[in-house]
Amino acid sequence: MLQMGDEAMCFSAVFLLVMLGTRSAIWASILTASPYVFMVMFSFPPVPVEQAGRVLRPMSDPSGGVAVVAHRAGSHDAPENTLAAIREAGRNGATGVELDLSFTADGVPVLMHDETVDRTTNGSGPLNRLQFVQLRRLDASAGHRLKEKFSGEKVPTLREAVEECIRQQLTIFFDVTGQPDKAASVLHETYKKFPVLYNSSVVSSFEPKVIYKMRQTDPNVVTALAHRPWRLSRFDDGAPRALSSWSQLWSGFLDVLLDWAHHHLLWRLCGVSAILVQKDFISLDYVQFWAERRVEVLGWTINTAVEKDFYQNLLKIGYITDSLLEDCDPQY
């Protein structure tokens, strides 16, 4: 069921809007009850709080129970989404790593953030047009500031990365950006091969359909929604996406609706255990809002010592960072 505060606000608003539009109490009641019935019938319950806690609140780390997650396995300290980065994250004190799941042209699940290989490797072109054997020939360190130290590093498969994370005893945040059916199927098979993942990993995405499909495929997986307010109307650096004022206004309106949906409907529909939020929108009140709903908050991307201290000692929540070693600029 929805939280009582959410329930009252959501359905009272729907009732009033429909009542004003139809001037019929009967139609207002029917149209208000319909989404409520939909939520009751099709929403997924979250995994047990104890299971989510084991994944999201590690208790044996130096930060005292706050998750410290290396973004793309620590993209500042080593070539992103590589086995070398996973090892470095483990050595440098991370409790977990965030890894980006993608697929080659022949369907092999690999780690890659971008749609193309241009930025991170010495190759070029879309990932989904490269066969795995072609991808394997590329140097995944070519675009990194420490490329001489990590020269020859390869783009790993999903299985290779999972095995390395298990060896390093790192929690995994699988970030999925598309292909919900394929991703859910591959991850489900991965969880069956490595059952330890049920207590040491999270599947996250900006796309609610990805999380919903994952819960539908395997309801025992801990999941998280990623969210950045104004994502549809502005780029990560704050620059507007649209050239015309009308387009910007419309995308801003959609952003308001999406933000409302994240905070009042989508989290419950998907049954998530955590929400990953851009750091500028997190406060003590915000953390409390989600705590009342038994949802953990993690901030991204936390790249300075001052910010990390704020998260560990004041907010007391986990965070995602590009570096475990030094202050750095964020990777978008």
Helix/strand-derived category reads: alpha/beta
Tally of contiguous helical segments: 11
Sequence of secondary-structure elements = HHHEHEEHHEHEHEHEHEHE
Taking Cα atoms only, what radius of gyration do you get, to the nearest Å?
Answer: 21 Å
How would you characterize this protein structure?
- This protein has helices at residues 4-22, 25-42, 49-56, 83-91, 132-136, 158-168, 180-193, 208-217, 245-270, 284-291, 305-315; strands at 68-70, 96-103, 109-111, 171-176, 201-205, 223-227, 274-278, 296-300, 318-321.
- The chain is an alpha/beta fold.
- The longest helix has 26 residues, at 245-270.
- It is globular.
Which key phrases capture this entry?
332 residues; alpha/beta; eight-stranded parallel barrel; 11 helices; 9 strands; 42% helix
What is this entry, summarized?
The protein is an alpha/beta fold and 332 residues long. Helices cover 42% and strands 13% of the residues.
List the helices and strands and how they pair.
Blueprint lengths: L3 H19 L2 H18 L6 H8 L11 E3 L12 H9 L4 E8 L5 E3 L20 H5 L21 H11 L2 E6 L3 H14 L7 E5 L2 H10 L5 E5 L17 H26 L3 E5 L5 H8 L4 E5 L4 H11 L2 E4 L11
Parallel strand pairs: 1-2, 1-9, 2-4, 4-5, 5-6, 6-7, 7-8, 8-9
Antiparallel strand pairs: 2-3
